Amino acid sequence: MTPTISLQITLDSLIQAVTSLDIDAKRHLLDIIEQQIFEAEEASYEEDADTKAEIDAVKLEYQQGEFMTIDDFIQAQST
Questions:
Q1: pTM for the full predicted model
Q2: CA distance between the termini of the chain
Q3: CA–CA separation, 24 vs 30, rounded Å?
Q4: Integer Cα distance of 5 and 47 in angstroms
Q5: 26, 33 Cβ separation under 8 angstroms
Q6: Using CA atoms, how far apart are residues 75 and 70, in angstroms rounded to an integer?
Q7: How far apart are CA 6 and CA 15, in angstroms?
Q8: Strands, E assignment, 1-79
Q9: C-alpha distances out from residue 34 to 3, 12, 42, Å
């Protein structure tokens, strides 16, 4: 098990630390931050009542055959 440490630093200190990183480290940090944002947004969407209702409505439409395949869509766009 990897030990963890929880730090509390000011945003200004964090910005200064990030500014001092080289480009590869900044890209790595960006990847980590983007993944964290994606996971947080995904969790938020899964818990959102409006999103759940929309997903249920789309599932029902699909079950009832009310959908267009990508091939049908492309063909409709080309005519």
A1: 0.51
A2: 59
A3: 10
A4: 29
A5: no
A6: 9
A7: 18
A8: none
A9: 23, 20, 12
3-state helix, strand, coil in the chain (%, to 5): 75, 0, 25
Is residue 29 a contact partner of residue 18, using CB atoms and an 8 Å limit? yes
Dist CA 69 CA 62 (whole Å)? 11
Q: How far is CA 67 from CA 56, 74, 78, 79, in A?
A: 14, 14, 18, 19
* Residue 67 pLDDT greater than 90, yes or no: no
Which residue has tokens 């098990």? 1
State pLDDT tens for residues 6-57: 889 999 999 999 999 999 999 999 999 999 999 988 877 777 888 889 889 9
**Contact assessment for residue 15 and residue 4, using Cβ atoms and an 8 Å cutoff:** no
